[in-house]
Design brief:
This protein has about 675 residues and is an alpha+beta fold. Helices cover about 55% and strands about 5% of the residues. Helix 8 runs parallel beside helix 14 (about 275-280) and helix 20 packs across helix 25.
Length: about 675
């Protein structure tokens, strides 16, 4: 998940907590704590490891040893995987019910028809690559660059973007108005470093990638000679695209990517690209307000396209059509796509069962339509009220910590309090559901149905260009197991998909609830004050509201965090990128501190809590936090994430912040020279 291109998300994260009313129900004597809870905590531990040496291994070693990675996953995270699997089964039942009742209401029929078309492998295989032939034919019929550029605009309206990426969102200088944000793109590999790696391993991967491109083109209908030659051209062009692309950490710099411009200015920046024609072909003509996030990339793209042949550009666009469409075509194409993108790149050995892929596809295509039915079954009763009260409690704990920050002056501190008070909290699901009337579905027409949904979703976004921001819209669907902070709206969203056990349970001791879930809420609050989030004021406007000397002291503390994480090694020769992961690391550090303060305040009111698995309440808090991040990850995926993910690997998301927290060392009696008791403690929030 992207930290800046989309709202700031926790990524494989968690949250859901307990209100003061719910908390009062949980004042439990030790005898009432379920043995199953204690056993689950105990089983995940590895007591042979010293908690003060490697807390992640101590808290997670038992779970890791007992949970080898399934063949259809490249990562498994304790708790998150459990909820994902539970959600998938529930969504599958909802969709099967909709498919079995064709006489039901129109929305249920739409869901059922889409699901059934995805599950109809016989019909999909019978069509082979024919569904994409109209798009390939349109590319083949283009005799010049202007025609190809127009086709790119048409496919862009379907979510097929061979040259760059774009999103409609709030203007940085006016959070009430949507504009179009243009970002670099055009790389089918996960990150630019893959193309620039000169090592033997890197060159071997590029050779495999070239063979993969050729195979996909062949399956799409090109001759073997055409496929082989075009694969060489496509890879050569993508290498040039990688050379002009910004490093990932720079793309997440909100000031560097704040470059507002009008349509005339964009045309001047890239004189060889006819933007009026492109937007007209996309169905979004007549708009002028744009932010070019990565301007030097677009200057370079203009030059690359002007120097390339029509044949080369057509090959690139043809490749992007089948690369994007592959998961929705015949099993032969799906398998080839997975062999490279699943196995070669991320280490996943087996393709997920079709029903799981169809659940994900339906959620992506008709998310809020499916979400309405999911919420009715999985988010009943007072869940929304309870979660809202909880997040307000954690926000209060964040505010309570502000007076203790010696580096912040009173004026900036007062504005920080105002920003916390202004946060909008979205819980569970939207107050107003999306209308999917523009999506048409037919039995036995999976690609056609997917394309209709893709066009409708892109069209919905483009329809908001230069319109007032709809503060009621969500950036995630209700079944999503995640959460996010959106700086331009100063809002936090907690989808219903994550607001359920095992991250919060009324039978858990409150120490565990605050550690596992309270921390996540604190994490999202802190995103409003991380290295980029702090640059937005309480209204979501990108503007400097800090005193210069306070901002300087913040940067000094942020650099401490960068330096610590730069030292962590993911694999031999590959370290965490402290700059790329800075915002998430600050959020983790602030989140665990805020959640701990909230827990201690709760404990002061409700009294001593029971031991669990021989752990004191403070120890339970930290163990619950760590155990929510227990993970088994394929090395291929670990490398990919280290290069492109703004989140640090799970083990460092645990050991990093806890080694800087005095309360942790006190809870486990860590000696002054213990690895989990760092002498230099980075304190930001």
């Amino acid at each position: 998940m992207s930290r800046r291109l989309l709202p700031v998300a926790l990524a494989l994260s968690a949250l859901a907590l307990s209100s003061s009313a719910e908390a009062k129900k949980q004042k439990q004597p030790a005898s009432t704590v379920s043995p199953a809870i204690s056993e689950a905590v105990r089983a995940a531990l590895q007591p042979s490891v010293d908690a003060c040496t490697d807390f992640y291994a101590y808290a997670c070693g038992g779970w890791i040893n007992a949970n080898p990675l399934p063949a259809d996953k490249s990562i498994s995270v304790r708790g998150f995987t459990t909820i994902d699997d539970q959600n998938d089964l529930l969504l599958k039942a909802i969709l099967e019910e909709a498919a079995a009742a064709p006489a039901a209401d129109a929305d249920a029929k739409k869901l059922g028809t889409y699901w059934a078309s995805c599950m109809d492998e016989a019909a999909i295989d019978a069509q082979g690559a024919r569904p994409i032939q109209p798009l390939w034919d349109a590319i083949g019929a283009a005799t010049d660059k202007a025609s190809l550029w127009k086709v790119a605009g048409e496919t862009g309206a379907m979510g097929i973007d061979p040259w760059f990426s774009a999103m409609v969102g709030a203007a940085n200088d006016n959070p009430e108005l949507n504009i179009l944000h243009l970002y670099q793109g055009g790389l089918a590999l996960p990150e630019r470093t893959y193309y620039l790696d000169q090592s033997a391993e890197g060159q071997a991967l590029l050779k495999d990638y070239e063979a993969h491109i050729a195979k996909m083109l062949l399956l799409g209908g090109r001759t073997s000679e055409q496929a082989a030659a075009e694969a060489v051209q496509i890879l050569a062009f993508e290498k040039k695209m990688a050379e002009i692309s910004w490093p990932t950490e720079k793309v997440y710099d909100v000031e560097a990517t704040n470059n507002p411009i009008d349509l005339a200015g964009l045309q001047k920046l890239t004189p060889n690209l006819d933007w009026a024609a492109f937007f007209a072909a996309s169905g979004a003509a007549g708009h002028t307000r744009i932010n070019v996030a990565t301007p030097s990339f677009f200057e370079g793209l203009d030059k690359l396209i002007s120097e390339a042949s029509v044949a080369d550009l057509a090959a690139v666009q043809r490749w992007w059509v089948i690369h994007t469409a592959a998961p929705y075509l015949s099993h032969e194409i799906v398998d080839a796509h997975f062999a490279f993108n699943g196995t070669r790149l991320s280490g996943q050995q087996k393709l997920q069962d079709r029903w799981k892929r169809c659940v994900a596809s339906t959620d992506g295509a008709l998310g809020e339509l499916l979400g309405q039915r999911y919420v009715a079954k999985a988010f009943e009763g007072e869940s929304k009220t309870i979660a809202l009260e909880l997040i307000r409690g954690v926000e209060g704990a964040f505010k309570d910590g502000l007076p203790k920050l010696s580096w912040m002056d009173d004026a900036t501190r007062a504005k920080a309090v105002e920003k916390v008070d202004a946060i909008t909290n979205k819980i569970g699901y939207p107050d107003r559901w999306r209308d999917y009337g523009a999506v048409t579905v037919e039995p036995g027409a999976y690609w056609k149905n997917y394309l209709s949904a893709a066009k409708a979703n892109v069209g919905h976004a483009l329809s908001q260009w230069e319109k007032p921001v709809d503060k009621g819209e969500w950036g995630m669907t209700p079944p999503t197991v995640n959460a996010y902070y959106n700086p331009s709206a100063n809002e936090i969203a907690f989808p219903a998909g994550i607001l359920q056990p095992p991250f919060f349970d009324k039978d858990y001791p409150m120490a565990m609830n605050f550690g596992a879930i309270g921390m996540v809420m604190g994490h999202e609050v802190t995103h409003g004050f991380d290295d980029d989030g702090r640059k937005y004021d309480k209204t979501g406007r990108l503007v400097e509201w800090w005193a210069p000397e306070v901002a300087s002291r913040f940067e000094e503390r942020a650099q401490c965090v960068v330096d610590q994480y730069n030292a962590y090694e993911v694999q031999p020769g590959l370290k965490v990128n402290g700059e790329l992961t800075l915002g998430e690391n600050i959020a983790d550090l602030g989140g665990i501190q805020g959640a701990y303060r909230a827990f201690k305040a709760w404990e002061a009111t409700h009294g001593a809590q029971p031991e669990v698995a021989g752990l004191t309440p403070d120890q339970q808090f930290f163990v619950a936090y760590a155990q929510s991040w227990c993970a088994v990850v394929k090395p291929e995926l670990a490398k990919m994430r280290a290069l492109s993910d703004p989140h640090a690997p799970p083990q460092f998301r645990v050991n990093g912040p806890l080694s800087m927290l005095p309360a942790f060392s006190e809870a486990f009696s860590c000696k002054a020279d213990a690895p989990m008791n760092k002498p230099q403690k980075c304190e930001v929030w």
